[in-house]
């Protein structure tokens, strides 16, 4: 995972700088999301992995599947990735691009895993509290994991807040065993 992230970082930064300069951050988000989904498709990935395909043929295949949703710069970006044998890094490029975009826009994506579904009011209050703590606009995504027993686990970038009953019991067990 670390290697793919390292490979993706300069491509994501280049795409981000180009998109920001052109005022096309949303367009590039869309293009990267589509092309990443294309290369992640199992059958298409198998097709691209054929040794008989040249880099140009791989790029053409991705570009044809994406159709007119890629502009000239997007097609050039795909071709560059193909030449450098980095098409498989597209999902990581997309993820890093989105992180750069969120940082530039003063936003942060927060994943909340709770033991029970959060209602709209709870989600809004949690997003507001996290927004003031992180000094950013919070884009909250929630999911349910009944194994938590109670509480929540919050992930915002590299920050993880484990306020779950399972997490607290694990800490207590570690303390008692040491």
Keywords:
single chain; 178 residues; alpha+beta; Peroxidase, domain 1; 4-stranded mixed β-sheet; 4 strands
- Radius of gyration, CA atoms, in whole angstroms: 20 Å
Proportion of residues in extended strands = 15-25%
Main sheet overview: 4 strands, mixed
The number of helical elements comes to 8
| CATH A-level architecture of the largest domain | Orthogonal Bundle
Q: Ranges with pLDDT <50 over ≥5 residues?
A: none
Structure in a nutshell:
The chain is an alpha+beta fold and 178 residues long. The protein has helices at residues 2-22, 25-40, 42-48, 55-66, 72-83, 90-104, 120-134, 165-177, and strands spanning 107-114, 137-144, 151-156, 159-164. It contains eight helices and four strands, in the order H-H-H-H-H-H-E-H-E-E-E-H.
Plain-language structure description:
The chain has 178 residues and is α+β, with helices and mostly antiparallel strands. Helix content is 62%, strand content 16%. Strands 2-1-3-4 form a four-stranded mixed β-sheet, with helices on both faces. The longest helix is centred in the N-terminal third of the chain and has 21 residues, at 2-22.
């Amino acid at each position: 995972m670390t290697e793919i992230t390292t490979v993706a970082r300069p491509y994501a930064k280049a795409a981000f700088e180009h998109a920001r300069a052109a005022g096309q951050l949303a367009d590039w988000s869309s293009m990267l999301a589509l092309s990443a989904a294309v290369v992640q498709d199992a059958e298409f990935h198998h097709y691209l992995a054929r040794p008989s395909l040249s880099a140009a043929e791989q790029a053409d295949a991705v570009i044809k599947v994406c159709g007119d949703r890629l502009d000239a710069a997007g097609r050039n970006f795909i071709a560059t990735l193909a030449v450098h044998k980095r098409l498989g890094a597209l999902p990581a490029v997309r993820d890093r691009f989105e992180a750069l975009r969120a940082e530039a826009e003063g936003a942060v994506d927060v994943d909340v895993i709770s033991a029970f579904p959060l209602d709209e009011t709870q989600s809004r209050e949690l997003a507001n509290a996290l927004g003031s703590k992180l000094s950013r606009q919070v884009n909250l995504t929630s999911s349910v994991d009944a194994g938590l027993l109670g509480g929540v686990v919050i992930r915002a970038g590299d920050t993880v807040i484990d306020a779950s009953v399972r997490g607290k019991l694990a800490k207590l067990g570690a303390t008692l065993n040491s």
